[in-house]
Design goal:
23% of the residues are buried. Strand 1 and strand 2 form a beta hairpin. By secondary structure, this protein is mostly helical. It has a two-stranded antiparallel sheet with strand order 1-2. Helix 1 crosses helix 4 and helix 2 packs across helix 3. The chain starts with a helix and ends with a helix. It is elongated and about 50 Å long. The longest helix is centred in the middle third of the chain and has 23 residues.
Length: 123
């Protein structure tokens, strides 16, 4: 898998689908992310080799290591989505832009923004 951002997007998708369905299959990931099944197959194999997921027959399960990353990225995504929506951005646009923002800021900048907006009760 090429980038950390791509890896994080896959882990976030697997995490969300797991929350929704309990288990995940490659076809569901492909549909959710709007990607081809061969691309998902390659990515899942890489995630499995690196210990982020396990594959049992057709089910994909996120490991604790993968879940830790996914939860962190998902929390950032939710924060930025909420922030943008509260600022007046349409929800579907906010979701797309939050997906980019979740990767763009350093952890330090994200934490400072989060704490700032907690003080003024935006989040």
């Amino acid at each position: 898998m090429a980038t950390g951002q791509s890896r994080e997007d896959y882990l976030k998708a697997i995490y969300i689908l797991t929350l929704m369905n309990g288990s995940v299959r490659q076809a569901e990931i492909a549909e959710y992310m709007g990607l081809s099944r061969p691309s998902v197959s390659i990515a899942v194999r890489s995630l499995e080799e690196d210990g982020y997921v396990t594959c049992e027959e057709r089910d994909i399960r996120i490991t604790q290591q993968g879940e830790d990353i996914a939860k962190r990225i998902y929390a950032r995504y939710l924060f930025f989505t909420k922030l943008l929506v509260q600022a007046g951005v349409r929800e579907n646009r906010a979701e797309k832009e939050a997906c980019r923002m979740e990767h763009a800021l350093s952890e330090d900048s994200y934490q400072k923004l989060r704490r700032f907006f907690e003080k003024i009760e935006i989040t």
